Amino acid sequence: MSVKQDLFQSPDYFLTDDLLTEEHKLIRDTVRAYVKKEISPIIEDYAQRAEFPVQIVKQLGELGCFGPTVPQEYGGGGLDYISYGLMMQELERGDSGVRSTASVQGSLVMYPIYAYGNEEQRMRFLPKLASGEWLGCFGLTEPDHGSDPSSMLTNIKDAGDYVILNGSKMWISNAPYAHLAVVWAKDEAGIVRGVVVERGMEGFSTPTTHGKWSLRASATGELVFDNVKVPKENILPNVQGLKGPLGCLTKARYGIAWGVIGAAMDCYDTALRYSKQRMQFDKPIAGFQLQQKKLAEMITEITKAQLLNWRLGVLMNEGRVTPQQVSMAKRNSCEIATNICRDARQMLGGMGITGEYPIMRHMMNLESVITYEGTHDIHLLITGMDVTGLNAFK
Ligand code: TGC
Ligand code: FAD
């Protein structure tokens, strides 16, 4: 058994398939088949080389994984949020970096252009982003301002027909390959504004971040703005303040809540199959109580998270979800997925640390996922504030 022969069988202990429509299942199965065919055979090698498989951008566009909830008139899929969640689950089952590419493009680049942009901006950018002709990135985090984006220093100054953009962003997924960046910067009144910065604008560069032990198959970089002249028609007119970027993060965090359960399912499935085949002391290790405890706890947590995600999707579809509910789900999913990967790795013994199996790669990836889109601590504090009414951030 090796990751290059993808034998994945999806665990569904509480028959959650019954909660899905035929369309949901078709979408899920289509993305699953894509991952088996195009991602699993290659992803380990790309991760080992720390290289972004750039061909997936076109493939994900063709598959409809970019902006699935954006209306079809702009090139999106016009689908519901459960479809979106299932796509993210299946992509992250392949690799968190692949899901990251899709999350950023759909939730952090297309969503703000759709929700905060004008009609001209929507028509100019969205169809090319949806098809994968263009790749986008999202610049919020700065070298000195991560969890607290309200203190950002990146700024725009009015200069007639355009604004002058200065500052820098750090840890930006997709940046080295991006055709455009949705960047959050303060105007002269200190109000956060969204601007679309296009590759080729003078003074704009995207140096690659090297040396990551996590998300190695995802391209990460900086965004550097040195007196970049950005035409005023590239400013997103319909939002002001931090609620602009945070509104995008609610969509992306929702996708992560589903996505990391895909990684957890892959680790559980791998550990289950391996432990039934691996003989020690003349019996399969799956027959030992200590290994069964791990498997039983993994499937219990996966099942609880599948149900939580489905319910979250229903609330998203009905427009009743709160950002705090999304935070709880993102945090819970990341925590259990991280624990499951760790236990699964131990169940494979020495083989667990090799690239023959996907577990170590998932485990390392999840160290980024538990940190980005709001750290584990930040999501806990969001829940804490929601239930107590008291702010423990500051
Ligand atoms: P605060 O005063 O609480 O909020 C400012 C305004 O924003 C509103 N708001 C939200 N709106 C929509 N969705 C949310 N999730 C929202 N959270 C807050 C809020 O109502 C307020 O609106 P208004 O109208 O009153 O102005 O802001 P704060 O400065 O106290 O910060 C709160 C805090 C710490 C929770 C927030 O800043 C935070 O979430 N920090 C974490 C930063 C973060 O998540 N960064 C992610 C960077 S992007 C990324 O990691 C992409 S990785 C992608 C990938 O590869 O997949
Ligand atoms: P810090 O904010 O410095 O936090 C350090 C530690 O302090 C954490 O443990 C944190 O929980 C804790 N802490 C902070 N504040 C508090 C508090 N009030 N109370 C208690 N503890 C606290 N950003 C983007 O804008 N776009 C992207 O595409 C993007 N992609 C990323 C890709 C990768 C691979 C990574 C690793 C990050 C990416 N990020 C991106 C950045 C990411 O969102 C930030 O790393 C994250 O928000 C945390 O910020 P920080 O790293 O500056 O940590």
Description of the structure:
This protein has 3 domains: 16-135, Acyl-CoA dehydrogenase/oxidase, N-terminal domain (Butyryl-Coa Dehydrogenase, subunit A, domain 1), CATH 1.10.540.10; 137-234, Butyryl-CoA Dehydrogenase, subunit A, domain 2 (Beta Barrel); 243-388, Up-down Bundle (Butyryl-CoA Dehydrogenase, subunit A, domain 3), CATH 1.20.140.10. Helices cover 50% and strands 13% of the residues. The mean pLDDT is 97. The chain has helices at 22-49, 55-63, 81-94, 96-116, 119-131, 243-277, 289-317, 323-347, 359-369, 376-388; strands spanning 136-139, 155-159, 162-173, 180-186, 192-198, 204-205, 220-231, 279-280, 283-284. A hairpin with a 2-residue loop joins strand 2 and strand 3. The strands form 3 sheets. It has a 4-stranded antiparallel sheet with strand order 2-3-7-6, with helices on one face. Helix 6 (243-277) runs antiparallel to helix 9 (359-369). The protein has 394 residues and is an alpha+beta fold.
User: Which ligands, by name, code or SMILES, are bound?
Assistant: 3-thiaglutaryl-CoA, flavin-adenine dinucleotide
CATH superfamily of the largest domain: Butyryl-CoA Dehydrogenase, subunit A, domain 3
State the shape. Answer: globular
CATH class of the largest domain: Mainly Alpha
CATH arch. level architecture of the largest domain: Up-down Bundle
Q: How confident overall, as mean pLDDT?
A: 97
- Number of discrete domains: 3
